[in-house]
Amino acid sequence: MSGAALGLEIVFVFFLALFLLHRYGDFKKQHRLVIIATLLAWYLCFLIVFILPLDVSTTIYNRCKLAANSSPAESNGSFVTLAPSKQKCFKPWSYIPNGIMPIFWRVVYWTSQFLTWILLPFMQSYARSGGFSITGKIKTALIENAIYYGTYLLIFGAFLIYVAVNPKFNLQWNQLQTIGIAAANTWGLFLLVLLLGYGLVEIPRSHWNGAKRGYLLMKTYFKAAKLMTEKADAEENLEDVMEEVRKVSESIKYNHPLRKCVDTILKKCPTEYQERMGRNMDDYEDFDERQNSYPSEKSLVKLHKQVIYSVQRHRRTQVQWQILLEQAFYLEDVAKNETSATRQFVHTFQSQEPENKIIQYFYTPTIEWYWECLLRPWFYRVLAVVLATFSVIVVWSECTFFSTKPVLSLFAVFIQLAEKTYNYIYIEMACFLTIFFLSICVYSTVFRIRVFNYYYLASHHQTDAYSLLFSGMLFCRLTPPLCLNFLGLTHMDATISHRDAQPTAYTSIMGSMKVLSFIADGFYIYYPMLVVILCIATYFSLGTRCLNLLGFQQFMGDSEMTSDLIDEGKELIRREKRKRQRQEEGENRRREWKERYGNREDSTRNRVVHTEQKESSFSETNTNRPLSKYTRTNGRTERDRIELLQDAEPLDFNADSINDDPLESDSGR
Predict the structure, then answer these.
(1) Are residues 522 and 587 in the same domain?
(2) Residue 301 lies in a domain
């Protein structure tokens, strides 16, 4: 069982990262390199979070063995018995042999750092580029990242010159490596505290508000009004870009050197626009080289980039609008069914996706009513109280984890109590719950934040390549300082606990932070206290109020703008609901008509076919008669009758008056 736990967690975390990436990314349409790079970044970060508790339990067992070797002891199988205190150092079920964890952490850490600082920024520029060839995209990515990479090289070069000139410093390669790690972790810790302060308050509050049906429905109306504005803006932007594409497509003919670039742009356009532009093409005309109105390749690259962005945004808003409509209809159904006397959940509209028969068998309308109208609000309230308790413990421990005598950090107290009895199951569960809650607070904020339309993680396969790669960069930069902060909260970091004990394998690859004492003894200890101020600001929604004052509409119950947007969204949902009801009524009428008169139509059709067969057989028996001129005359009469029927104009029943005599009408033909 020594390596089984590690292998199981490696496989489980891979499928977890793959599931989340499938929810946000699109495997069919996005480039494979983007999918692989994002999957690798997410996988490594989630793997660190899941494997670190095993590292803690293995380190505690190794400390026990070292204490046993320094005192008389008796070895007996899988545990060590200390002679003086008669304690037994049981080997944990998830014990990882020595030498595996340092190599594992070194590979995972440096791979994630290579991704976040070198590969993913380059791939971001490559994915956002509008070039028509691989060489052109690489060139654009190198130019865009020249300033990015040059800034880091300039800072690192200045630091090396300062160290080489100053005789007080005698730094070696290991110390330079530790300084680089400390610089990366300092940047990550700065961002970590900001995201953690938001998540510690917002996650419990969102679950508490989830128990309020009226609150969720009003917020959904608010989102509908904002999304409709964004949807209209995306449609207008797409129309403008497609108009530019049409002009370019009409000006550049089939034998122009840049026609291949235009065809590449047309392939990225929606199907209806491609058909519309294809009908208006006159490719038989040659281009004239003497004209100067042809666009350049640089302008086509810019247009290609605009097409990719506008099409992705339009498709995302369309999908999000349909999802938001389903949520609004469901919340309205919940509000109606709360007063139901039959205690059976009734849906206004049937689900468009086919439901699983097993779920449909167990999740009956009665069970659905009890869950949605009775149990779910209480479940969310209890969960919100539990999450709020965890948040209070985290805030207290962040402010007191530097105190070792007495130990004030509650997480450190829990781990040390379990360490005395060597209860490895409890140690691993406590460590996993702690770091998992911290990760949820940080990572959920990464999934929630939105930087205009440049970074936005949208579910249901609607996230673009740029946002996926940017999220991978954030995860790789936030996870190492998150793990160091967790080890500091539990006093497993020797820099915090000031104990001469064996460090964990994770902290051993980070090196000793004593090289930079002002960071190890100052920034790492006192900066996390800022989380208290951030939690207070989040609790009173100071950031939301500031954004609302700047003109970015945010959901606030005491705002007049919020009330207007709620009313607008409510009217939009009501309009869409009437439209869907009319569609369903029309489908039901057609279905009833088909069921009622379908047999009659089939019998009538069969009777007509039988009569036609008789007439054809009768005409075949009279083929020898000289009726050619009559047949020709009858055919001409039939054609004249058809032409007269086609030229007849339909009556206008919406007119104010209908005259029987055409001579008395005001406008004669």
Answers:
(1) no
(2) no
274 CB-near residues (< 8 Å, 6+ apart): 266, 267
Query: Look-up: residue for tokens 């880091």?
Result: 152
Chain CA centroid to CA 651, Å: 55
In a domain, 237, yes or no: no
What gap in Å lies between CA 68 and CA 75, rounded to an integer? 9
- Rg over alpha carbons for the chain, rounded to the nearest Å, is 35
Beta-bridge mates of residue 90: 79
Are residues 138 and 39 located together in one domain of the fold? yes
Cβ within 8 Å of residue 340, ≥6 positions away: 346, 369, 373
549 and 569 in a single domain? The answer is no
Nearest to 347 by CA among 358, 331, 360: 331
Assess whether 477 and 580 both reside in one domain. Answer: no
Range of the domain at 588: 564-594
Can you give the three-state secondary structure of 294-360, one letter per residue? CCCHHHHHHHHHHHHHHHHHHHHHHHHHHHHHHHHHHHHHHHHHCCCCCCCCCCCCCCCCCCCHHHH
Angle at 534 between CA 528 and CA 539, to 5 degrees: 140
Write out the two tokens for 123: 């791939």
User: Are 505 and 574 part of one and the same domain?
Assistant: no
3-state secondary structure of 90: strand
Q: Is position 459 within any domain?
A: yes
Within this chain, do residues 426 and 575 fall inside the same structural domain, yes or no? Answer: no
* Beta strand 73-76 pairing with 88-90: unpaired
In a domain, 300, yes or no: no
Number of domains in the chain: 2
Q: What is the mean pLDDT of each run of 10 residues along the chain (669 residues)?
A: 78 94 90 93 94 92 80 47 52 85 92 92 88 87 83 77 68 72 84 93 93 88 93 94 91 83 90 77 52 78 92 92 92 89 85 70 87 92 96 94 87 89 88 94 90 81 90 93 91 78 85 60 81 93 86 80 90 93 87 77 56 51 43 47 46 40 38
SS3 content of the chain, % helix, strand, coil (to 5): 75, 0, 25
State whether the Cα torsion 181-187-191-193 is positive or negative. positive
Determine the Cα–Cα distance for residues 268 and 249; give it in Å rounded to an integer. Answer: 13
Are both 449 and 521 inside the same structural domain?
A: yes
Is 473 found in the same domain as 369?
Answer: yes
